[in-house]
Specification:
Number of domains: 2
Distance between the termini: 17 Å
CATH class of the largest domain: Alpha Beta
CATH architecture of the largest domain: 2-Layer Sandwich
Shape: globular
Helix content: 40-55%
CATH topology of the largest domain: Alpha-Beta Plaits
Structural class: alpha+beta
Length: 165
């Protein structure tokens, strides 16, 4: 993967976008103090370089839960029997393809993976766990923690302390 060079303006653009990606190009350019064509060109370059993966709306799970009638978040630690690259990659690929798996981290030391999983309710989580973990002969251990309250959720990359090379 080719490394991209970024400057202070790029960092300001990235910071603004991760706080509010719905800004128009004009508004973004104003906030970062560049011309709209420069802003558009830089955002395209940052996107093409993969620094901006995608732009999405972040929904409030807490506020949607009563409307939808459910909402269960589980943090799951997974330990595999065989930890060679092939088995780790296979497990990661399989769980990453499941919509209920919101986040997947390969970790060390301790378990091999930590997952953040959303389920409708406890029976929904049980069905998912049986499908993903119990049915997989390579899963040695599963330890699940259920969220009783989300104190913070902020998908921002901290850019304030970063200075370009």
């Amino acid at each position: 993967m080719e490394q991209i060079s970024i400057d202070e303006t790029d960092l300001r653009l990235l910071d603004q976008l991760q706080h509010d990606a719905s800004l128009s190009n004009q508004a973004l350019a104003q906030r970062v103090h560049v011309s709209p064509p420069t802003c558009l060109r830089r955002v395209r370059r940052l996107t093409d370089a993969g620094l901006i993966e995608r732009q999405i709306a972040i929904l409030s799970a807490d506020r949607l839960a009563p409307v939808l009638g459910f909402g269960l978040t589980a943090i799951v630690e997974i330990t595999l029997d065989r930890q060679d690259a092939e088995h780790l990659d296979a497990f990661e690929t399989r769980v990453s393809s499941i919509e209920a798996v919101q986040q997947c981290y390969r970790v060390s030391p301790g378990p091999d993976f930590c997952l953040v999983v959303a389920a409708a309710d406890m029976p929904g989580y049980l069905a998912l766990a049986q499908r993903l973990f119990t049915a997989d002969a390579n899963v040695r251990n599963v330890k699940t923690f259920f969220s009783i309250k989300r104190s913070k959720f902020e998908p921002l990359v901290p850019l304030a302390a970063v200075r370009p090379a």
